[in-house]
Amino acid sequence: MFARKNYTEVMGKTLSSLQNVRIEVARILDVDRENFTILCKSEFGEVPEYRIPLASPFLDQVSGSGLRYQPVGGETILVLTTSDGYRYVLGFVPMDEEGSMTCGFPPMDSGDYFILNRGGAYLKMFSGGILQIGATPVCGTIYIPIRNLVHTIGENIIIDSLAGSLEFQVDRPEDSSEGHSPTSMQIKVKEFSDDENEMVRLKLGGSQGDNAFSLTIKDSGNGEVIKSTIALTKTGDLKVSLTRDYSITIKGKSTTSVTGDISVDSKGSISEKAQGNFNISGANVNVTANAIAKISAQNTDIASTKVKISNSAAFPVVRLSPDLIALFAAVTAITGIAPAGHFNPTVTV
Q1: First-residue to last-residue Cα distance in the chain
Q2: Can you tell me the distance from the alpha carbon of 121 to that of 326, in angstroms, rounded to the nearest whole number?
Q3: Which residues pair with 38 in a beta bridge?
């Protein structure tokens, strides 16, 4: 059987070599940030004590994990002298400020845990389960257990990923001619995770000139060749620029209502086809052909009170003379087919 050994035997110490534990109030004079030790002066001693480390609730020297705090000069501390003569900073003492020991902390309820630093950063764990992490009142995130809500507050927010980024940006008032702070939201998406830049860029907001919405698509994430752009301006204009094909497929109805003019210009051919009726109407309808104008139909019906054929026509003109009318009357008498519905007697040549 192995004999049980106590702490002093394991550490090579004897009871006679140990001393009483002592706790003193001291003040930090300087901090060795490289070695995580301090220089302090005890209220009982005239000579400052050097290289005193801070005790921690947890430290793992192998992995370098745990909880550490780097103090600053002037703080009041409790220095512990252990039974084997080692000295550690046991804790920090709040100073009485007209009866208050808050040390600048905000009000807390029972069960709350707050960690605050001198720069304003904070970690607050409330007894109700709410967690708040931030740097300023308008730069932080609140985690609320009810409905698993995550609420992030910030003037500027950037979320980076290997796939791209999401950014909310607020410009400075001095960057605006109107003295306001223009804002924007920008989404960038890469084609591949190892690309240097994005392939798709979506931007919304007021910090892009006249545009309120813009979508830019490039050829790849490693180039700057823009293939397509879509922009909506603050005044309501829609601007689309494509370097390739454009197609729309609609299974239902399509209705377009325009209060102004419509202009279509094509350097190639234009083709329109309808399986049903194809209707064109207007105050005046002009059709101009630089070469040949051709109309093909099984039946052609021209309904007009007056038809004018230009004198520049390259074919003989047939006048509706009295002799021609008499000829039509004779043909009608013989065949029984009346041409009156197919000819307009007011044709002007």
Answers
A1: 134
A2: 107
A3: 31, 52
